[in-house]
């Protein structure tokens, strides 16, 4: 688990799950969790959608974006969030 981004509006965490040694030959899995702090919802992106998110962030980083620009990009994916964030 690696915190990639944390603003007043969003948090983005990267997850990578490596295959077990000596276990099944399953490929490594992972993705990105996006938490919309104001909507109190989260989404987990994996597979093709995670790759699309990653590519977009990498392209955006080349332009040295402001926090507002990063939040706007992340917000496009956060709009898909349906899972409520529950604190315990």
Q: Your description of this structure?
A:
The protein has 2 helices and 5 strands. It has a 5-stranded antiparallel β-sheet. The two termini are 20 Å apart. Strand 1 and strand 2 (10-17) form a beta hairpin. It has one domain (2-18, 28-84). It is globular. The mean pLDDT is 87. It is α+β, with helices and mostly antiparallel strands and 88 residues long. Helix content is 31%, strand content 33%.
Using brief descriptors, characterize the structure shown.
88 residues; alpha+beta; five-stranded antiparallel beta sheet; 2 helices; globular
Summarize this, please?
The protein has 88 residues and is α+β, with helices and mostly antiparallel strands.
* Poorly predicted residue ranges: none
N-to-C span: 20 Å
Helix and strand run: EEEEHHE
What fraction, in percent, of the residue positions are helical? 25-40%
Counting structural domains, the number is 1
Q: How would you sum up the major sheet?
A: 5 strands, antiparallel
Q: Given the C-alpha coordinates, what overall shape results?
A: globular
How many H/I helical runs? 2
What's the SSE blueprint?
Blueprint: E1 2-6, E2 10-17, E3 29-36, E4 41-46, H1 47-61, H2 67-78, E5 83-84
Antiparallel strand pairs: 1-2, 2-3, 3-4, 4-5
Helix pairs in contact: 1-2
